[in-house]
Design goal:
With about 230 residues, chain A is α/β, with parallel strands linked by helices. Chain A is built from 7 helices and 10 strands. In chain A, α4 packs across α5 and α5 runs parallel beside α6. Chain B folds into 2 domains: about 170 residues, no CATH class; about 170 residues, no CATH class. The chains are: A alpha/beta (about 230), B alpha+beta (about 375). At the A-B interface, α2 of A face α1, α12 and α15 of B.
Chain lengths: ~230, ~375
């Protein structure tokens, strides 16, 4: 079940120059994502999936067009405004987990909370809740290097949800995991979407992973070629 | 968890690199602390020189004598508060290697000129006045040889001899003086000039130099002029200089210690600069991806800039503080060592403040480039490097 419009991309284009050559990734891309959506973006390598995710996450800026989030335009924000916006609204999950190796699991999860005004006690409470949700309460003090890939990705999920963002962006979240573990992670994402109402945008190569999404968009050469409603 | 905790964890994540870099900084500040304290101790006489004190020596050079009669004449000059005759005794204790800086003086006049610097028990001072064979011993000397009040000790002279041909004088330790300021020199021993003059076999009634206290530093120039003109065209012409200039020229005879020390310290810090700078740059480069992740999570670039700089500060201050601490212990050990020739080697407040200044500059120089790189790091580029 989806709600009001969360994201609106209006005529977005993205290009960059490599040497003397101008490379266009998108040209006049339009799309919208509703609140509570679980969207999978698929496509071959070089189709622009990750670039699209970067634009949605505010880590990259379009060369043209507008990006609206929750009725506010975000593509024209300054770098520091975007950082604040990301901290308040978006959780990120990466293919290779991107955890801080010098911190234990719970410290990794606490990281985004350092950007909030929560007290140490409140942070601890939120971290414990997130760790419990991903089923890693008993491994909170462990270093991430002592954990399996699946456990590390669950720590990354806990980090993504600990500050209660509206949107979770996942870049190949199961790309480094075996099938069974991948299914566990995807089920967890599905749970976050269905039970906690989190909007999820997931880039993936894996059709099985896409099956967990409510909607699948196929991207090729910077254009959506097909739209599927999965569930 | 705080930013400081993150900085600490980042700093110590590669233990071997951390300890080696820390060790390099530690060594640099140990060298800095020890050598600067050495330099300061050597120059303590210059630093502690009073503005209202002058020294008068024979114009030929300060090894030539002056007649003792000059003291009374000089005392009459307007603007002079007190004059003390001093004569180098050339003393040693038991072994010529165990030199004791011994001066023959007139005790009340000594106190009139240098009393502001010397701290001595009043009863001990009175006993010293009464006993012509009594001596006033500096604390450093007393500690070095284990002398205490009441001891009778022999002192030999490698210049003078007694009328019986012996070069050994017997003295009673009547008092031990300390300095009123922490870096005051307490390496001296004072004997009665009267006793020395009466018992020595060379031509008497001569002194090495005069210590003079003026009533006002503003009068120094006039006093110097009047004093030196007083003895023009006599067999013993004088040269009078401010105490500070005299001490400075005395130290200069040892060579340019300051330049040698500065060169060694500069070389040590230059090497450290390269090592720490390289280490910091490497550490931040290795963490490019992680910095990208932190920025992605919402950490502002300015905050990451501060954290990288804090890392540099933490490393330098940790190594520097340990270096200064060990330097303090090392200097304390040297001060206790019985045969070490320089006493009162301490890390003064000035040295510590200077060291903190060096730490700040070192931290900024080694941290600023990695910090700016982290500040400018583009998230997409950083994440693609992981």
């Amino acid at each position: 079940m989806t709600g009001g419009k969360l994201y609106d991309l209006r005529g977005v284009s993205k290009s960059f120059t490599k040497g003397k050559e101008k490379i266009t990734i998108f040209n006049d891309l339009n799309m919208s994502i509703s609140e509570g959506d679980f969207l999978a973006i698929m496509g071959p390598s070089g189709s622009g999936k990750t670039t699209l995710l970067n634009l949605l996450g505010g880590v990259d800026k379009p060369t043209g067009g507008e990006i609206w989030f929750d009725d506010s335009r975000v593509d024209n924000l300054s770098e520091s405004q975007l950082a604040k916006w990301r901290a308040n609204n978006i959780g990120f999950i990466f293919q290779f987990y991107n955890l801080m190796p010098m911190l234990n699991a719970e410290r990794n999860v606490e990281l985004p909370l350092l950007l909030t005004k929560l007290s140490a006690k409140e942070r601890k409470k939120n971290v414990a809740a997130a760790m419990e949700l991903v089923g890693l309460s008993d491994r909170a003090k462990h270093m991430t290097s002592e954990m399996s890939g699946g456990q590390q990705q669950r720590v990354a999920i806990a980090r993504a949800i600990v500050s209660d963002p509206k949107l979770i962006l996942c870049d190949e979240p199961t790309g480094d995991l075996d099938r069974k573990t991948a299914d566990e992670i995807l089920s967890m994402l599905q749970l976050l979407n269905r039970e906690f109402g989190k909007t999820i945008v997931m880039v993936t190569h894996d059709p099985s992973a896409a099956n967990y999404a409510k909607r699948v968009l196929h991207l090729d050469k910077g254009e959506f070629v097909e739209k599927d409603l999965v569930a | 968890m705080s930013d400081l905790y993150l900085v600490y964890k980042n700093l110590t994540r590669k233990k071997l690199r951390f300890f080696l870099t820390l060790f390099a900084i530690f060594i640099a500040f140990l060298i800095y602390g020890a050598l600067t304290a050495f330099d300061t101790a050597l120059n303590a006489g210059v630093e502690l020189s009073a503005d209202n004190r002058l020294v008068t020596v024979n114009k030929i050079n300060f090894t030539q004598p002056l007649p003792i009669s000059y003291v009374r004449k000089v005392e009459t000059i307007k603007g002079i508060a007190a004059v003390v005759p001093l004569n180098w005794f050339g003393g040693y204790y038991k072994d010529p290697q165990q030199q004791v800086l011994t001066f023959a003086v007139d005790p009340p006049k000594l106190m009139a000129v240098y009393g502001d610097d010397l701290a001595i028990d009043e009863d001990h001072y009175k006993n010293w006045l009464k006993n012509q064979q009594g001596i006033l011993v500096g604390k450093s000397v007393a500690d070095m040889y284990g002398w205490k009040v009441g001891d009778r000790i022999p002192l030999n002279s490698n210049i003078f001899s007694k009328r019986d041909g012996s070069t050994s004088w017997e003295f009673d330790v009547e008092g031990i003086y300390t300095g009123k300021r922490p870096q005051a020199d307490t390496n001296g021993v004072y004997i009665h000039y009267k006793y020395f003059n009466e018992t020595q076999s060379f031509g008497g009634n001569y002194i090495g130099w005069m210590g003079i206290k003026t009533t006002d530093p503003a009068l120094n120039e006039q006093v110097i002029k009047t004093l030196d003109e007083m003895f023009v065209n006599t067999p013993f012409e004088t040269e009078t200089v401010p105490e500070k200039a005299f001490n400075k020229s005395f130290i200069a005879q040892l060579g340019n210690i300051g330049l040698i020390i500065s060169s060694v310290v500069f070389a040590a810090f230059f090497i450290i600069l390269v090592i720490v700078g390289f280490s910091m740059a490497l550490a931040i480069r290795e963490r490019t991806g992680e910095i990208g992740v932190m920025k992605t999570l919402g950490f502002p670039s300015q905050r990451i800039f501060k954290m990288v700089l804090m890392e540099s500060f933490m490393l330098t201050f940790l190594g520097g503080s340990i270096g200064l601490l060990v330097a303090t212990l090392f200097l304390g050990f040297l001060n206790e060592a019985p045969q070490f020739p320089i006493a009162d080697l301490i890390l003064t407040k000035g040295i510590i403040l200077q060291a903190v200044g060096v730490m700040i500059v070192l931290s900024l120089i080694t941290g600023i480039i990695p910090a700016v790189n982290a500040l400018k790091l583009n998230i997409v580029t950083a994440l693609s490097r992981r």
